[in-house]
Amino acid sequence: IQSTITLNNGTVIPQVGLGVFQTPDGETTVNAVTAALEAGYRHIDTAMIYGNEASVGEGLRRSGVPRDDVFVTTKLWNDDIRARRGRDAFEESLDRLGLDYVNLYLIHWPADGWSQAWDDLQAIYATGRAKAIGVSNFERHHLEELLAHTDVKPAVDQIESSPQFANQQLIDFAHAQGIDVEAWSPLGGTGGNLLADPQLAEIGDKYGKSAAQVVIRWHIQRGVVVLPKSTHTERIRQNIDVFDFNLTDADMAAIDAIDTGKRNGADPDHFDF
Ligand code: A2P
Predict the structure, then answer these.
(1) Contact (Cβ atoms closer than 8 angstroms) between residue 128 and residue 94
(2) How many A from CA of 228 to the centre of ligand 1?
(3) Of 58, 116, 220, 231, which sits most exposed with the smallest number of CB within 10 A?
């Protein structure tokens, strides 16, 4: 009973996916992926730079869940964008994953050369080996530039978004263009203090839910795809057990009010990696 969103090219994406940024390669990632698939996740979000694509593929195979039932995303890294290696880098990602297609392939950051990389993604999309293509960490001006030139509209923009940095104007702009949004660091990220906010626990108490579940539910109700990360089986299970309650408008407004307007992660207009 997971909710899904239909992307602008008709591809269906489960609204909660397991994020594996900073999940160590090897058994930790294999176990996180198998635990997620056993808990009912059907969406895993990785990237070349996370260094764990092979373990994501291994976890998928070990779970016994049919490949076609799972939505797999990976991303083209900045060095490969700058080196104009989009098509080769895509093949290398598929090889590491041990898959013959991904569901979504993203430009990871708007690094120099992204516009040529986008041409590579369009060519890959035409072969059917990426069922959808999109971008990540694109600000409004990047999206405007892309939309002015592209034949294929990006299906998604994956951006930082949490109650502390809602990024709502960018989300509204993307939605108005028919581009869906995926939230990274949706729980405020590693080492964040968001989940300790007593307001979240208080809201959760009304429904028998944790602060993390409340935040994930907030993302779902504002219509974005949410990619919580955990390496703990119990939390992985908890983070998808969010389809049996509804936040009220007042709950949503209280969580909206947490916004500080300050990012936890890198600024897409000034990053140095
Ligand atoms: P861990 O991997 O040790 O479980 P984000 O998804 O915003 O990047 O945040 C992930 C951070 O929140 C990680 O540090 C993760 O730690 C922690 N986390 C994930 N799910 C939960 C949960 N249900 N309860 C508490 N902390 C969580």
Answers:
(1) no
(2) 7
(3) 116
